[in-house]
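We read letters as residues; the fold follows as tokens. A sample entry reads:
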Amino acid sequence: MGLDCSHDAFHGAYSAFNRLRQFVCAATGGSFPPHWIHGPNGELLKDERGMTRMHDLPADRFQCGDDYPRSEWPGLYEFLAHSDCDGEIDPAMCTTVADDLERLLPKMEALRWESHGHIAARGGFMEVVRKFIAGCRAAAAANEPLDFH
């Protein structure tokens, strides 16, 4: 079981899709639940007791950096807020999602997060993001929604 998106945008575990959203959100200077504090290579930082450090943020909400308001980044917010197991993104919004993710590519590349599991098996974070962008563009070009199932 896992998430399969149409147009070959994403195939993998739900947890892998959430790690992808953590990665994208971190590129904005924000945080995606669970709000772990990551080091420069994406590793989870620990406190002096060996406990994973976490931001003090609501467990059910993501937060983008101050330079990423929803009004200027609607595709980013659609990507981060969308259900990880069902629904769809309409064709016009697919273009907006792809555009916003492409705008963030340089910030994502600067993170240099190491990947594991389904993300690593699919070429790492940057390759998975690019594949999601391509899937959004394919759905928009076909005037079809990007389906999550």
Summary: The chain has five helices and four strands. The first strand starts at residue 3 and ends at 4.
